[in-house]
Specification:
The chain is mainly alpha-helical. It is built from four helices and three strands; from the N terminus they run E-H-H-E-E-H-H.
């Protein structure tokens, strides 16, 4: 998916300092969540991190869960499970669409 096809919420354009201001998290906390693979900022050639609005929402969710005492390993497991569910749902939708297209074209051919 190219940059133009992505939602503004997915574009990684926000600096770590701004993310810290918006979330109330320290730079150290944000870097720690990156180390734990809970967040994946874009890094340019100089290594500067850039985050998206979706990353900020994810960080806020992580912060809320940490405040509730949830360990980062559990948060990561939950995030991976949700990603697998999204992938599975996307695959089901793709198969349903393909089935509908196949049925439509088969139906259309038989009528001529």
């Amino acid at each position: 998916m190219n940059q133009q096809d992505r939602s503004y919420k997915d574009k990684k354009v926000i600096s770590i300092g701004t993310v810290s201001e918006l979330t109330g998290l320290t730079l150290r906390q944000i870097r720690y969540y990156e180390e734990r693979k809970l967040i994946a900022p874009y890094r340019n050639d100089r290594g500067t991190r850039k985050y998206s609005f979706n990353d900020i929402e994810t960080l806020m969710d992580i912060a809320d869960k940490r405040e509730d005492g949830v360990q980062t390993t559990e948060i990561l497991k939950e995030m991976r499970l949700k990603e697998k569910q999204r992938e599975s749902e996307a695959e089901v939708k793709k198969k349903m669409l393909q089935g509908q297209l196949n049925a439509q074209f088969r139906y259309g051919r038989g009528r001529n």
